[in-house]
Amino acid sequence: MVKQTIQIFARVKPTVRKQQQGIYSIDEDEKLTPSLEIILPRDLADGFVNNKRESYRFKFQRIFDQDAKQETIFENIAKPVAESVLAGYNGTIFAYGQTGSGKTFTITGGAERYSDRGIIPRTLSYIFEQLQK
């Protein structure tokens, strides 16, 4: 059943090289609303003072770290929406982000391994399984 109208999730994209991980932290203890802090270290360019913010904090219903599997994303995001749709409610999943941030992989999945299926193929399979019951 629908418990909330809009939920916002974040998925941190794995980096190509493990040594090159972005500087971020996930705070799960923040009063039931986890936050993602992005840290942008200041640098001195040509001796000029850089007064830009050094960190940004964003709140989400849930944050999935770099090691989150497609199955975990489906179970926590798409499956509850599919269950609500089967119960007669409208449901939408919307992926938003910068070019190359992993939206297509999350939604449609990878073509090389069955376990890399994304939200769309998993949701279609789930809906047809439920309709056959």
Automatic annotation (TrEMBL):
Domain of life: Eukaryota
Pfam family, one: Kinesin
Keyword S-adenosyl-L-methionine: no
GO cellular component terms attached to this protein's record: cytoskeleton
Protein keywords: ATP-binding, Cytoplasm, Cytoskeleton, Motor protein, Nucleotide-binding
Keyword ATP-binding: yes
Residues annotated as binding ATP: 97-104
Residues in Kinesin motor domain copies: 5-133
Protein's name according to its UniProt entry: Kinesin-like protein KIF6
Species of origin: Bison bison bison
Gene designation: LOC105005310
